[in-house]
Amino acid sequence: MTDTHGSMGLGGVWASGLTAMLLVSGCMPASEVQMSGTVFDSPGGIGGVVGGAMVQTLDGDGVTVAEATTDESGFFTAAVPAGDAFFVQVQGPDGGGYVPTAFSGNAGLFDFDAGTGFPWVASADWTDALRADWAGCPGAETVGEAGSGVAVVGEVRKWMNVSDVDAMPVEDDANIVITPAQGAEITACYHDDSGVYDPEATGTGTDGLYAAFGVDAGGLVASVEYDNGDDTRHVAIYQYLAEDGGMVPIYPTFVYQE
User: Fold this and answer.
1) pLDDT > 90: percent of the chain
2) Phi-psi category of residue 31: left, alpha or beta, with phi > 0 → left and psi -120 to 50 → alpha
């Protein structure tokens, strides 16, 4: 038995009840809210900040909402659709060797801080390390190059109501399939339990990591099938919009046990 959960991205708030209250009171909610954040050059907010990066926000149909350039401290503010899903694409400054990096999220009805580590843009060093980590996985050697398609990479963790992501257990034996809007679906590569790419692996190992390269650009869906802990398999769905030569990092890829 397999159950499917809806799209997940950056944490926002589901605000349908509040929207109804505003309508009853005669106040129309804003169509856009402001998202602020700081762009780093690696996940988790642990790398260097990136000044001069372009942050583009798009609505759920892929229509541009706003564009902003980060200041010297990596800070930006950009509009996103209020109470709805959105996409984010980040381009590093020219000549820096950055790989365009894509994200998705759900906004509430009020301005918000995106939080540490969202969004970020993949540096040349981080991308080189990714290629080395996944050496042998088809397409890993051309990540970030024109015509290479999209790289989708991540780490599967079981969501818990704690502030420290590292405290959330890694999900092993998750199966990830990437389905582009146009083109062939790709099954992810996985590590063995020693942290090395294993061409025979059929699911995540003890590090929870996965990677898929050469995905056709445009809209895509990452489907994550995992053990719910009660002899059923559930599927978590992540939706993104990414350009050729770009990257979709899903760190962490949350799954939920009921």
Assistant:
1) 81
2) alpha
